[in-house]
Amino acid sequence: MPAPIIRRDGKKAKILYVEDNRENRMLVRAIMEADGYTIVDAEDGLSGVEAAVREEPALILLDVNLPGIDGYEVVAVLKSFPALANTPVVALTAYAMEGDRQRTLVAGCDGYIQKPIDVDTFPKQVEEFLHGKREHVEEREEGAYLRELNQRLVHRLVNQVEELKRLNQHFVRRATQLADLHRAVQDITSEVGARAMTLSRRVVAREAVERCHELGIAVFAWTVNRVEDVHRRRAEATVARCRARRRALLRDAAFARAATRWNADRRYRRVLREADGARRTRRATAVVGSRSVGGRENDR
């Protein structure tokens, strides 16, 4: 096993872990800090990119299923920085479908570790990547996964463009409503101004025009902001519930797999103990039998 990478301050290498699940971040931090590593974590893709540029870690552990921009986009952004181009990025995800490993490697990751992690072998796996281990996709498979990745990125880009168009139309409608309100207020202020001028009260009319104009726009702006704030809060609450449900399902699936492995190991150890006990019993029986035969021969 190669010697660990030691920094000038006597500690092992610095590792960045980008993961939206708090329990997973705490688990990896506990395992790696116990082995002497320095852990920096981030809870989404954008903060992960910022932390990578700021901290310049020796290795980046990246979850694929992230809110906002996913792991495929994050690794593409990370590799675009010259200072991070040679930094190994290892996908650490609960995805277990066929082809997930190839997709992460084609996207730019240098390795793939599947969740749930093995607390005994995880530090060794990380250290192998720190010492130069890199995983690759076979050339005959790379083309198909590259096309799939490009289609995925194009689909996300089209969705973002459609969202921008929808927001632009929304703002155009709001601007038209504000323009109509402005013209209506101008008509009112013009009438007030004419009456004031006929009464030789020009100063009072000017102040009334300005106040009506400001009051009308302020009332309309407050109403628009109030309605948008209510819709935004509802949308955010719905998205938060969906994400929480998805994380709960992924966490339950991971716990179920871990429990299945633990039960299988427990049954295997019990079978070994029973086999060992039977072997010892046979040996003891054989020894007693041999001693009995030897005693009879001596008597003769």
SSE string, helices as H and strands as E? EHEHEHEHEHHH
Counting DSSP E segments of at least 2 residues, the number of strands comes to 5
Number of domains: 2
* Major sheet attributes: 5 strands, parallel
- What would you call the shape? elongated
Mean pLDDT: 79
Query: CATH fold name of the largest domain, please?
Result: Rossmann fold
Unreliable stretches (pLDDT < 50, length at least 5) are none
Note the quaternary state here.
single chain
Terminus-to-terminus distance: 63 Å
Any guess at the CATH architecture of the largest domain? 3-Layer(aba) Sandwich
* Rg value: 34 Å
Notes on the protein architecture:
The protein has 300 residues and is an alpha/beta fold. The chain has two domains: 14-137, Rossmann fold (3-Layer(aba) Sandwich); 145-242. It has helices at residues 22-34, 45-55, 71-79, 100-107, 122-130, 139-198, 202-299; strands spanning 14-18, 38-42, 59-62, 89-93, 111-114. It has a five-stranded parallel β-sheet, sandwiched between helices. Helix 4 (100-107) links the parallel strand 4 and strand 5. The protein starts with 13 loop residues before the first strand and ends with a helix. The mean pLDDT is 79.
